[in-house]
Structures are given as structure tokens and as C-alpha cells.
Amino acid sequence: MTEINEKFYSLDKEKQLMIINAAMEVFSKNDYKNAVTDDIASKAEISKGLLFHYFKNKKTLYLFIYEYVLNLVRDNIDRSEMNKITDFFDLLDYGAKIKIKLLEKNPYLLDFSLRCFYNDKELISDDVNEQLTELYEDSFELYFSNLDLSKFKRKEDVYQIYKMSIWMSDGYMHEKRMKHEKIDVEELLLEFNKWMQIFKNNFYK
What we know:
Tetracycline Repressor, domain 2; elongated; mainly alpha; single chain; 11 helices
């Protein structure tokens, strides 16, 4: 967990969200290097000095927003509902729909996430990539432990299919960014479902 001044948490929730949303907006519209903390403070309606009172520096703030996004996804997952799902592809579909709903409610969430995931030339890249690697590993153990593996031709293929589903989604978004095209979350979900059906046809008995 990123270390920040505990006084941030003593702020009322509305003020916390103003700061979080301001930072997410600025970081989503700019590369890390070009994101200006003065703009974040202005949008959050606080002084730059107060912003750095809560967050030691820009890197601390960025990593806090990154962790906030990850927790936002986790907090919107109904674990009791998810634990009822034993089919691998139904579980992937459930997770995808949760993320789509979040993207629709948070206009800057998608662009910020994309900048996190495609950050090879960013000053912050090593920190984010290390956490992403851990996230993939932990997510599989956390969310896919209740699967009915008897449906698979080869049970040992499950983790590879999971990784391939991530790579395919990443590839779709990367292609859109390369072409400077807007990412349509509904289109992404439709494409994702097509890919998963192909996997299902090939890897299920």
C-alpha cells in the first residue's frame, strides 16, 4: 500500500473524491511526465502545498490513484455471487461486465488504466509493471479457485487461457491506441465474448 499522510483520510469523503477524481483526470489526459500537479490541485480546489501535504510527491499520488483503481474493481465484485460461478468462461464474463459498468460510471477510469498498462517509456513504469505482474498472479488464485475444471480437455491449460484472455484484451486496446481510435467499451465486450467462445469451443470437452 502506498504510504500517504493519514490526514487525507480525515477529510470528508466528498473532498477525498474531489482530489482523487482531479488526479485521475489529469493523469488520464497526460503522460506521467507531463501531468502537472498544479492542474490537479486547481481541479481539486486545494493548494498545491496542501496536495503535497497529503501526498509526498507526484509519484506517491500516482501510485495511490493506481491502487485506488484496483481497489475500486475489487470492491465492486460481489464475492458471494462470484463464488456461485463454477464455469471458467461465465466467471470471465462476470468480471468483464463489472469492469464495463465501472468504466461507464467513471469517465477517466479507462484512459488512466490504459496509460498505466502501456507505460513502457514512463518514469513510473517499473513500479506499475511490478504491481501488475503480482496482480495477475494473485487474481487467478483469488477469483478462480472455485472452478469446475472437469469441463476442460486439459486442466493444466486453465491458467494459460486466463493469461491469453488478458493478452487479447490488451491487444485490442493497444491497437485502438496505435490507430488513435476511441475505445468503445460495448464493442470491447462483444469482441471479448467472441474470443471466449472460440476458446470454449477449443478447450472444453
